[in-house]
Amino acid sequence: MNILRQENASLKVENEALKDSLYTAKFALSDLNTKVEDLEHEKASLTTTLKPYEARFKQQDPPIVVNNHTNDESPSSIAERDVGNCLSYTADETILIPDDQPDADNKVCPTMQIRSRSGKVKAKPKSQKDNEINQVEQQSSKQNSNAQRSDKSQSPKKKVIAVLGDSIIKNLQGWRLSDDNNHVVVKSFAGANCTDMEDYLKPVVRKEPENIILHVGTNDLNKSASPDQIAQGIINLGIQINQDSPQTSITISEILPRTDKSNLLIKASQVNDIVKKYGDQNKCGYINHKAINATCLSSKGLHLNKK
């Protein structure tokens, strides 16, 4: 019987771990969906910006193509070739090779080629019309590039707000909290205490978000640490963020009230008082949860419910 109870307890622990992993995967997926939406908006903006330039470019005169039918040798072209071969190759010779393909006015359009000393035909020099077309293409390309850079610089960049903490925040959905000006990312680390968060913070802080909201300390209450020690652990996390990313503003979310253990509720209240005092003295943001009561908690009285 005891073995079954132990196995049951073990399965419950594994089940909780799987749930936490599933929630983490859902949050990551929501963040990716938000990024995809941002890219789609950027693509639409660029497409709208490029439409006038595309229409203007299409109105330009199309390039003139002159056909050289060197393989279909007419009698006149053979004669020209023979004359060219008989010339002394003391210098490059300019030879007119008529095109056997008449133009729109039924006139033969001669094509100029240059024969070198070796007898090989050099490519014809670019005409003034070709140069003008190339200049138009280069100018249009430069305008498009400048338009893209200008559009990116004018579009406002969303502020990144990272909400970091233990499993208490696992039901928060970053994409629901985001808006046109703020991109909210939620990172929940099940079972994390203040010491664990020192490592979990680093990858996020390295990206230098505009604001970090910390919610930690719940898993420290069960330990023998005093309220002063727990509060100092939370404060140290804020100091760590400030040192690694000075431009990031810090907001500390107080420990939620809990109904599972009355002694821990008192301890949490003492920790919150110490942290709030520190926040007031150091101009650090602080979020209280006076609006959260027992009706907002799960059946175990610890985590938030879907309310």
What is the CATH C-level name of the domain at 159-296?
A: Alpha Beta
Structural class: alpha/beta
**Terminal-residue CA separation:** 38 Å
Shape: elongated
State Rg. 37 Å
In CATH, the homologous superfamily of the domain at 159-296 goes by the name SGNH hydrolase
Describe the fold and architecture.
Keywords: Coiled coil, Receptor. GO terms for molecular function: phosphatidylcholine lysophospholipase activity. This is Scavenger receptor cysteine-rich type 1 M130. The protein is α/β, with parallel strands linked by helices and 307 residues long. The chain has a domain of 138 residues: 3-Layer(aba) Sandwich (Rossmann fold). 49% of the residues lie in helices and 13% in strands. It contains seven helices and eight strands; from the N terminus they run ααβββαβαβαβαβαβ. The strands form two sheets. A five-stranded parallel sheet has the order 5-4-6-7-8. A three-stranded antiparallel sheet has the order 1-2-3, covered by helices on one side. Strand 7, helix 7 and strand 8 form a beta-alpha-beta unit. Helix 5 runs parallel beside helix 6. The chain is elongated and about 95 Å long. The two termini are 38 Å apart. About 12% of the residues have low confidence.
